[in-house]
Amino acid sequence: MVNGQWVIRDRRSCLLDEKALEKQYRALVAEVFAHELIQESKRKLD
């Protein structure tokens, strides 16, 4: 459950740093898509 910047998970409250989380998510998505593009270009060369 999310309430503002606080997240309640497993009966424990944690402060959610949304900007840091979004930055990590964007980096992960970019890495996955870069890996997929490399694999696709290798398949086209074969």
From TrEMBL:
Protein name, per record: Uncharacterized protein
Q: Tell me the organism.
A: bioreactor metagenome
